[in-house]
Amino acid sequence: MPNSLLTLSALELLSLLKKRELSALDVCENYISQVEKIRPLNAFVTETPDVARKNAEDADKRYKSGSSLPLDGLPFAHKDLFATEGILTTSSSKILSNFIPPYESTVSQKLKDSGVVLMGKTNMDEFAMGSSTITSHYGPSLNPWVSPSSPTTALVPGGSSGGSTAAVAAFAAIASTGTDTGGSIRQPASYCGLVGIKPTYGRSSRYGIVAFASSLDQAGVHARSVKDAALFLQYMAGHDPKDSTSAKVDVPSYLEAITGDIKGKRIGIPKEYRPEGLSPDISRLWDKGIALLQERGALIEEISLPHTDLALPVYYILAPAEASSNLARYDGVRFGVRVEHPGDTLNDLYEHTRGSGFGAEVKRRIFLGTYVLSSGFYDAYFLKAQKVRFLIAEDFKKVFQNGIDFILTPTTPSGAFSVENPPQDPIEMYLNDVFTVPSSLAGLPAISVPAGLSEKGLPLGLQLIAPAFQESGLLNIAYALEHAVQFKGLTPETIFLPQA
User: Fold this and answer.
1) CA 156 to chain centre
2) CA gap 409, 448 in Å, rounded
3) 112, 247, 272, 399: which one has the fewest Cβ atoms less than 10 Å from its Cβ?
4) Which ranges of 101-161 does DSSP label H, i.e. alpha helix?
């Protein structure tokens, strides 16, 4: 029973809980056992079994009294940059390794108020800066998938939300939060064979989320199916007066919008996303996705997004610039780790704290961001990048205004790579986000759906992009694609666990 329980979808689990054929506490205990079993994957920074049991007991009381909440009893995990009151929140960094927030992020509060059972806080790239979880102060998370041709080679789960996807793919949570700045929900979802949705910028509140790049960061969700993702997004989304970037846009019923009917929908295929040298695995998968949507009545049209090749350099000017500003608050004075020596000046305190408290990738991005914001370079780099960002957004706007309903692209340029032999060149690592960054710069909703396996037997995703605040239609076409593909994921018995 335990393993079959773990494979139930969130909607199936809710149905059984409402009928009281299962207790939330029994579900919780099974998931706690799975969290313990998958510790070799290093998916969690902080496990919260006592909190989970209390959440589950409260859910059972509400089910018994007929006053259940919409997500009561569902085992959930939060990326470790969502502030959780009274629970360690580190952003997988040394400098925040002792930070216990006295407040709750809006997204985690809304899910808490909806009845989720908190299994723990998941590992991630430090301050969400990375595409592999390798930059985490707590060491890398590992992907539950492994290539049949190399069954002992541990792979990355992607990043920065790698711990969140590893936890869900390994059945230690039924769903999890992630944040997406340039692809950090969609890329790890692709690597781990999950659904990952980044909603429109402003759809979910950023209040209480440790900031990386404020004009790009957006909270979303990972799940094992499109309908589960829709269920959790429903209770995460919405206007928040605490967040000035939160949009005053009504949240429709996402589940009701999912019918699978996509007849007559115009799907754009951007020619710029098929560069010379595109991996045969990716090209084959993309062609398969196009054919499957066409079979279901969608109309396929080639489109052009002419500024696509500028998206990555623009992103790696703007995001580090915002990061250098956001991370200035970590100085050893107000909160977090303090590193000092007798007789130090205030400047020495800053230098020792930040020099010791930040990892190499975070320092690299702070240096880069500070440089492009400095006198003499602001106009040449930052201001110019802002102008090109506008052009990228206009490319998407024109395509949608011309009647295209959705855009279909690959999610990543390749499958998961080895933890032991990752790309050594930072630029090569940054290229993992080449397909996801443009829609982030434009603030558009996008979703990755598992669509097949590479020749090495590893999951690959396809990405769908929609106009702003059209998550309902996006989830519907993602469901149609998911239903057409019939992707077979892992089971609790087939997850990769490295030997001690």
Assistant:
1) 14
2) 9
3) 272
4) 106-113
User: Does 240 fall in a domain?
Assistant: yes
* Alpha-helical regions (H) of 273-380: 280-295, 311-326, 346-357, 360-373
Q: Do the domain assignments include residue 381?
A: no
SS3 state at 14 = helix
Q: Residue 78's domain spans which residues?
A: 2-258+444-485
CA distances to 126, 337, 338, 347, 354 from 343, in Å: 30, 18, 14, 11, 18
Question: How many angstroms separate the first and last alpha carbons of the chain?
Answer: 27
Q: Is the peptide bond before 147 cis (omega within 30 degrees of 0)?
A: no
Distances (CA, A) of 496 to 2, 42, 167, 452: 18, 12, 12, 19
Both tokens of residue 32? 């706690």
| pTM (predicted TM-score) | 0.96
* Number of domain units in the chain: 1
Q: Are 400 and 305 in contact (CB under 8 A)?
A: no
The H or E element spanning position 121 is strand 117-122
Query: How wide is the angle at C-alpha 177 spanned by C-alphas 176 and 183, nearest 5°?
Result: 115
Contact 81, 5 (CB under 8 A): no
Per-residue model confidence as pLDDT tens digits over 290-338: 999 999 999 999 999 999 999 999 999 999 999 999 999 999 898 889 9
Count helices and strands in the chain by DSSP H and E runs? 17, 11
pLDDT at 341: 75
Domain assignment present for residue 280? The answer is no
β-partners of residue 462 are 410, 449
- pLDDT per residue as tens digits for the range 242-251: 999 999 999 9
For the chain, list residues with pLDDT below 70. Answer: 1-3, 342, 500
Q: List b or e across 176-191, with b for residues whose CB sees 16 or more CB atoms inside 10 angstroms.
A: bbbbbbbbbbbbbbbb
